[in-house]
């Protein structure tokens, strides 16, 4: 067995795929950044991300997959489900070895699991577009904190760039400790230490615009006023807005202690 260690990026994983074929590695297991102690007697192959090798794999996949299937591969990678890198590698190997398109072969577990994982990332990105709540700082930066189940910031960045093109903003993933920052021209990835506990009045007073707390309270009152108690359906509400997202939703912060 060979542990293939890469940097955790999609480009790094594609480079790893290229080198598995290049060096004829067998029984591969992927690891991010460092070797797993659970596989003490395995061989180790360390991958240095190479855009040329990654592009060669992508070019080959474009010839064998539809645009939808090609996108599903990336979305499935971003799902970060357990052993997804191995599942994706088997999917890619199947695609390269087949003379026909494999995307509808749902009897194959790897094809089915890639499709399910891609759907999961797509669903999570859709939720993030609806659940991002920006706050305004004193230096006119709009920031939001999210904790999605999947790594969806790369998927949603164009949506927010187009929708909020006239203001600087930062969306920070507290689970993965990185964010995407828009400077009125480009979106870039940033890594920073960020306090995700933003609900306190002390925090708001220190970094937020002086009117921010007023507008947050105004939004909470509006949200409360449009709810019709007689039509309340808690089960349906939780289905569309799961409670795990509430800690970063302005309108839900007063309900967290219930």
From TrEMBL:
<feature type="domain" description="DUF4130">
    <location>
        <begin position="83"/>
        <end position="251"/>
    </location>
</feature>
<dbReference type="InterPro" id="IPR025404">
    <property type="entry name" value="DUF4130"/>
</dbReference>
<dbReference type="Pfam" id="PF13566">
    <property type="entry name" value="DUF4130"/>
</dbReference>
<dbReference type="InterPro" id="IPR023875">
    <property type="entry name" value="DNA_repair_put"/>
</dbReference>
<protein>
    <submittedName>
        <fullName>DNA metabolism protein</fullName>
    </submittedName>
</protein>
């Amino acid at each position: 067995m060979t542990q293939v260690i890469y940097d955790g990026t999609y480009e790094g994983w594609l480079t790893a795929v290229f080198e598995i074929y290049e060096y004829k590695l067998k029984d591969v297991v992927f690891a991010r950044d460092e070797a797993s102690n659970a596989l003490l007697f395995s061989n180790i192959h360390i991958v240095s991300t190479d855009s040329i090798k990654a592009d060669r794999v992508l070019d080959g996949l474009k010839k064998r997959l539809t645009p939808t299937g090609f996108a599903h591969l990336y979305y499935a990678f971003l799902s970060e489900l357990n052993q997804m890198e191995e599942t994706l590698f088997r999917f890619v190997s199947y695609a390269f070895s087949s003379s026909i398109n494999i995307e509808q072969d749902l009897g194959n577990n790897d094809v089915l699991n890639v499709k399910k994982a891609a759907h999961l990332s797509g669903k999570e990105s859709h939720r993030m577009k609806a659940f991002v709540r920006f706050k305004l700082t004193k230096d006119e930066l709009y920031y939001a904190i999210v904790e999605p189940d999947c790594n969806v910031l790369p998927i949603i960045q164009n949506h927010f760039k187009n929708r909020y093109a006239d203001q600087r903003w930062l969306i920070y993933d507290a689970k993965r400790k990185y964010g995407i920052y828009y400077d009125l021209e480009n979106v870039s990835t940033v890594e920073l230490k960020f306090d995700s506990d933003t609900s306190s009045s002390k925090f708001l007073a220190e970094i937020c615009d002086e009117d921010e707390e007023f507008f947050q309270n105004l939004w909470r009152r509006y949200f409360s006023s449009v709810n019709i108690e007689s039509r309340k359906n808690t089960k349906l509400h939780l289905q569309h807005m799961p409670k795990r997202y509430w800690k970063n939703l302005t309108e839900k912060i007063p309900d967290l202690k219930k």
